[in-house]
Amino acid sequence: MGKTPWLLFLPPLIFLGLALLFYTGMQREDPNRLLSTLIGQAAPPITPARLSNFPEFEQSQLVSGGVTLVNFWASWCPPCRAEHPKLLEMAGAGMPIIGVNFKDDAGNAAAYLAKDGNPFRAVAFDPAGRTAIDWGVTAPPETFILDAKGTVLFRFAGPLVGSDYAQRFVPALQQALGQ
Q: What is d(CA 34, CA 10) in angstroms, rounded to the nearest whole number?
């Protein structure tokens, strides 16, 4: 009787390790929540490049003395289009929103805002996605809540619609506003 090669046990051990890793991941408090290393940190800089003739972004707008939202969006993004009416509603109620258009065509983005309305106090243009990388954006849309000092309080990945918006974003915004 010969020796059993040790490589024979390697595939089951790899499978067991992966199964343990996946099981641990499923036991997190909220498996749908994407963690952000920016929470509690000063907001990273945003590119000063502006989109067409829309209001220009200035870094001082991140420390405006009140709560500010930073929304990463693109004209080619269906979820961004779905959340657009909510952004217009919030802007109409006086919420300052900074828009960062990224990985988009400037003409398409400008035409979209001209046609559907502009909810942003300023619109930065980030065609290469460098600012999005600095902010840890994984896919549009993503919205960040900043306090009066420009500190990131909350990150919401996904469109500002539906039950996830109502159950997670709205309470975080109300808490930031002190309501």
A: 32
- Residue 179: partners with Cβ closer than 8 Å, 6 or more residues away: none
d(CA 21, CA 16): 9
**CA 102 to CA 96: how far, in whole Å?**
19
135 CB-side CA count, 13 A: 31
Give the model confidence (pLDDT) of 5-30 as tens digits: 777 778 888 888 888 887 877 776 65
- β-pairing verdict for 142-146 and 68-73: antiparallel
- How far apart CA 139 and CA 34 sit, in angstroms, is 12
pTM of the model: 0.80
